[in-house]
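User: My collaborator sent over this chain with a note saying "see what the structure looks like." That's all I know about it. Can you take a look?
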Amino acid sequence: MKYLESAQKAAREAGKILLSNLGTVQKVSFKSIQSNLVTEIDKQSEEQIIKILNDDFPDFDILAEESGSSSTKNSEFMWVIDPLDGTTNYAHGLPIFTISIGLVKGNEVITGVVYDPVRDHMFYAEKGKGAFLNGKALSVSKTKDTKKSLLVTGFPYNVEENPDFCFERFIVMTKNSRAVRRLGSAALDFAYVASGIFDGFWEVKLNPWDIAAGMLLVKEAGGKVTNFNGDDCDIFNPQILSSNGIIHDKLIELLKLAEQIQINL
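Assistant: Without extra context I'll predict from the sequence alone. Here is the result:
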């Protein structure tokens, strides 16, 4: 079985679990701080994904949000899984959430799937083969002016500490764009950049499972993904900037400008 087929199958089966339990979450716990939620549904979704992927590729390592790393097989392949990206949305019954599954070979993402089960939107990409939504090829936007751009971001769970100038960056980007949105699912943010809906997406602190599949989608749709300095990055770089590529340098300039201002919190 091909990698992409397996990832899509796992995402769809996990999506059934999420949809069947949407609006019925009874038990919510916290990982480290009050804003970092996990539900019993996250865990059920992850278990289903891992079972399918392990059945198809038993020798591959796995890095998953809830169960952590099982990199004991010394494989050059590793599945990177977020079983429910947008847990806070999901716990409140807000239907904006996704499942993200990426396959890394060495240090490079070669397959990525982001599935929105509410809309039945299956975003997927394979290295060198383009990015797609339900079979339709994706392409990033052609917006050239940040003032006319629609951007998206997210905030880290310890947002009250204002890590890495996250508030200042939000202010500067808002002042220099048409608008900034916050959906609550980084994987969907990436997918919408790849689709040309958003012109750019940045976040100061992401995890590998937030990044893997979405990063590949943007690159395969013709966009660019770097850190805030414009350097190439991998899934273990928490600082992420993705865009249509055209406005990328300007976004880097604005992110650096944000570090020079001070706000009173």
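A starting point for your reply to your collaborator: The mean pLDDT is 91.
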